[in-house]
Automatic annotation (TrEMBL), chain A:
Organism: Chlorobium limicola
Protein's recorded name: Acetolactate synthase
CC per GO annotation: acetolactate synthase complex
EC number: 2.2.1.6
GO terms of biological process kind: isoleucine biosynthetic process; L-valine biosynthetic process
Family, similarity comment: Belongs to the TPP enzyme family.
Residues in Thiamine pyrophosphate enzyme N-terminal TPP-binding domain copies: 9-123
SUPFAM superfamilies linked: DHS-like NAD/FAD-binding domain (SSF52467), Thiamin diphosphate-binding fold (THDP-binding) (SSF52518)
Known catalytic reactions: 2 pyruvate + H(+) = (2S)-2-acetolactate + CO2
Keywords noted in UniProt: Amino-acid biosynthesis, Branched-chain amino acid biosynthesis, FAD, Flavoprotein, Magnesium, Metal-binding, Thiamine pyrophosphate, Transferase
Needed co-factor(s): Mg(2+); thiamine diphosphate
Automatic annotation (TrEMBL), chain B:
SUPFAM superfamilies: ACT-like
Residues annotated as domain ACT: 4-78
GO cellular component, one term: cytosol
Reaction equation(s) it catalyzes: 2 pyruvate + H(+) = (2S)-2-acetolactate + CO2
This protein's pathway: Amino-acid biosynthesis; L-isoleucine biosynthesis; L-isoleucine from 2-oxobutanoate: step 1/4; Amino-acid biosynthesis; L-valine biosynthesis; L-valine from pyruvate: step 1/4
Assigned keywords, A-Z: Amino-acid biosynthesis, Branched-chain amino acid biosynthesis, Transferase
Its biological purpose: Catalyzes the conversion of 2 pyruvate molecules into acetolactate in the first common step of the biosynthetic pathway of the branched-amino acids such as leucine, isoleucine, and valine.
Protein name: Acetolactate synthase small subunit
Entry's EC annotation: 2.2.1.6
Similarity annotation: Belongs to the acetolactate synthase small subunit family.
Organism the protein comes from: Chlorobium limicola
Length: 573, 159
């Protein structure tokens, strides 16, 4: 601990600031520009540095940690290649609005612009993929800049903020000063909703015969699940969630309709197109949700609450915009709801009928394995209470369908960017933050290889993540599109001949590993894996090759035109 | 429709780049952008001319506001404002044309800033429309080079 007024060098100031920001973990990787920082770090015990094996891994770990805990994830990497390796992870956090602060080393100020060894203009590179970024030019600005970075990353719509620190700044000495408050005149997010708008919204909700709550990740990041539950249950309003919103409302509650959109449930999409009032909270009308926008929820009066005004009227024109924090919005609405309730039994009966018409189902066979079954079984054995991370592809969509998330901050997945390779590091990061619930990863055989090196990190730090590899020997989601829309030309998606022996790979990293090829083996492997917490455990599930995720809205089609199965791909109901 | 937007920004390196790259990343039209310090040396004023329908302009304004280094964003289009652009232009000069050229400079209230045997450089200040007209009128005399500042604009003061 250092006190304001002490003479400190840049590296000491750096750690003192992190301490004051209550940072518990740094995900990092050293290098030339950071030698001074790592020298200081050597004697620091109260902040844990996690050594990753690739800087991309550090960014996804920090994001996994942030999403599981709500606290900002912190990344520390060197200049040049260290910095450029973070670009995908930063973009991912930007698209999914995750709070993150990335610290990059930089060549000495005097060499900036000279194409110096390991110089990259990371501030220029990351300008469009960060909420904001800074180059610290003077050690006297370092503390204030770090304070601002955390403030920006966590206030308003969360997002990644990058701080670039030249080597000479980290070595220079100055009097340490800690700004207790921060004031950024260009950043004044609207947190409190306009009362007039709230009253209008409450009035509409009270009167609506067929309302629908459309819930996005904003409800999770503002910790508004309790308010949401109260509103939905007290007023009998069905709830559909986006991929990032899953868990905001319990998936096993009768009012939960699961996910909407491209691989959403049939009944959720029907409800969207038949409701008379759509209440969007912390969601952004993404194209994967809306399908063709001019046929989206055309019968509904649309209320849209979002903390970021740019999300309003961006993709779909709404009738009542309410800018502000989701928690504030829902709490304010609850206060305005009248005693007498509108009867919604007919509307709920309509929804149940759609659900009966096209439920989510799969058929199990005793001698072969399906991803749906594995996910379903993991959901059963964990009671829907695990923190589930996924990679990107079919298994991700099946997770959204078959894992019935019961709590917020339970699904950690790359939504906006769809980054393969995200899952493993994100799971490890989440497990640093959450120790009282199992952390599970569902991953495809393609994406697993994209950050496989982080297995070392999990093994070394004895992180008890359950790594469930769904090996279908294909880039499954691309194969699905090839089958449906590209004349079954399976161009470069068959990994069958080139995949390694995954169990051996995991074992080589020092990871406990198992394999399962049928439902019985799968069930046993899952319970063994869940019971073992000495370190990471890996299970390869050999699943059938040509399974497909249904229902599905083809890209650009209306969400009422869902493909329901492969045999009747054009069946529209 | 054309919109003229005035933005107060932090006078820091990279701010212009943040604004310009936001326009290109989001596919917004950027007809001109000009920037200079204000009475407060920590703050610069940017004048942006862009085109788009109401939905796009509303996004442009919101996205500008969202940048951390922007302090205040005002769409001047529908408010009383003054808009000016500076034109510097070098033209060919000859015995036969010089008379007409000088007359036209007067018409456009321009100024001669440099004159040589065979060329003349003038400055004209006016609305972007007037600058367009000026260029059209002088074109037949042989324009060698021209530079436009892009529009700067300001809210008209209270009476
Ligand atoms: C980094 C990256 N590269 C390419 C893609 C395109 N892509 C989307 S899904 C997918 C297939 C994923 O295959 P796999 O990891 O085996 O999972 P599965 O779909 O089989 O569950 C690909 C290649 C992507 N999303 N991310």
């Amino acid at each position: 601990m250092h006190a304001p007024g002490e003479k400190l060098n840049g590296s000491e100031i750096f750690f003192e600031c992190l301490r004051r920001e209550n940072v518990a973990y740094i995900f990092g990787y050293p290098g030339g520009a950071l030698l001074k920082v790592y020298e200081t770090l050597y004697d620091i015990k109260d902040i844990k540095h996690i050594l990753v094996r690739h800087e991309q891994g550090a960014t996804h770990m920090a994001e996994g940690y942030a999403r599981a805990t709500g606290k900002p994830g912190v990344v520390l990497v060197t200049s040049g290649p260290g910095a450029t390796n973070t670009v995908t992870g930063i973009t991912n956090a930007y698209m999914d609005s995750s709070p993150m602060v990335i610290f990059t080393g930089q060549v000495p100020s005097s060499l900036i612009g000279n194409d110096a060894f390991q110089e990259a203009d990371i501030v220029g590179i990351t300008r469009p993929i960060t909420k904001h970024n800074f180059l610290v030019k003077d050690v006297r600005e370092l503390a204030l800049t770090i304070r601002k970075a955390f403030y920006l990353a966590t206030n308003g719509r969360p997002g990644p903020v990058l701080v670039d620190m030249p080597k000479d700044v980290l070595n220079a000495v100055c009097t340490f000063e800690w700004p207790e408050t921060v004031e950024i005149r260009g950043f004044k997010p609207t947190v409190k909703c306009h009362q007039n708008q709230v009253e209008k919204a409450a009035h509409l909700i009270a009167r609506s015969k067929k309302p629908l709550l459309y819930i996005g990740g904003g409800v999770i990041s503002s910790d508004a699940s309790e308010e949401l539950k109260r509103l939905a249950i007290e007023q009998n309003i069905p709830v559909t969630m986006t991929l990032q919103g899953l868990g905001a409302f319990p998936g096993d509650h009768p009012l939960s309709m699961g996910m909407l959109g491209m691989h959403g449930t049939f009944w959720a999409n029907q409800a969207v197109n038949n409701c008379d009032l759509l209440i969007a909270v912390g969601a952004r009308f993404d194209d994967r949700v809306t399908g063709k926008t001019d046929t989206f929820a055309t019968q509904a009066y649309k209320i849209h609450n979002d903390i970021d005004p740019t999300n309003v009227d961006k993709n779909v024109k709404v009738d009542l915009p309410v800018v502000g924090d989701a928690k504030h919005f829902l709490a304010a609405i609850l206060k305005e709801m009248p005693e007498e309730k509108t009867d919604r039994s007919e509307w709920l009966a309509d929804i149940r009928a759609w659900q009966k018409q096209c439920p989510l189902t799969y058929t199990n066979e005793s001698d072969s394995l399906k991803t749906e079954y594995v996910i379903d079984e993991v959901c059963r054995q964990t009671g829907g209470d695990a923190v589930v991370t996924t990679d990107v592809g079919q298994h991700q969509m099946w997770t959204s369908q078959y894992y019935r998330f019961r709590k917020p901050r339970s699904i950690i997945t790359s939504g906006g960017l769809g980054t393969m390779g995200y899952g493993l590091p994100a799971a490890i990061g989440a497990a640093f933050g959450v120790t009282d619930r199992p952390v599970v990863l569902f991953c495809g055989d393609g994406g697993f290889m994209m950050n496989v090196q982080e297995l070392v990190t999990a093994v070394y730090y004895k992180i008890p993540v359950k790594i469930f590899l769904l090996n279908n020997s294909f880039l499954g989601m691309v194969r699905q599109w090839q089958e449906l829309f590209h004349q079954e030309k399976y161009s470069f998606t068959d990994l069958g001949d080139s995949n390694p022996d995954f169990v051996k790979v995991a074992e080589a990293f020092g990871c406990r590993a198992m394999r399962a090829e049928n439902p019985d083996e799968a069930k046993k492997a899952i319970s063994e894996a869940l019971a073992w917490n000495e370190g990471p455990v890996f299970v390869e599930f050999k699943v059938i090759k040509k399974d497909m995720v249904f229902p599905m809205v083809p890209a650009g089609a209306s969400i009422s035109d869902m493909l329901l199965d492969r045999l009747n791909p054009k069946t529209m109901v | 429709m054309k919109h003229i937007i005035s933005v107060l920004v932090e006078n820091k390196f990279g701010t212009l780049n943040r604004v310009a790259s936001m326009f290109s990343a989001r596919g917004f039209n950027l007809a001109s952008i000009s920037i200079g310090e204000t009475e407060d040396p920590e703050i610069s004023r940017m004048t942006i001319v862009t085109r788009g329908d109401d939905q796009i302009i509303s996004q442009v304004l919101k996205q500008l506001n969202r940048l951390i280094d922007t302090i205040k964003v005002t769409d001047l289009t529908k408010q009383p404002h003054v808009e000016r652009e500076l034109l510097l232009m070098t033209m060919k000069l000859s015995r036969t044309t010089q008379h007409e050229i000088f007359e036209l400079i007067n018409v456009f209230k321009g100024k001669v800033v440099d004159i040589k045997q065979k060329s003349i450089t003038i400055e004209v200040i006016g609305s972007p429309d007037k600058i367009n007209t000026t260029i059209d009128i002088f074109r037949p005399y042989g324009i060698r080079e021209l530079a436009r500042s892009g529009a700067v604009a300001i809210h008209r003061g209270e009476s």
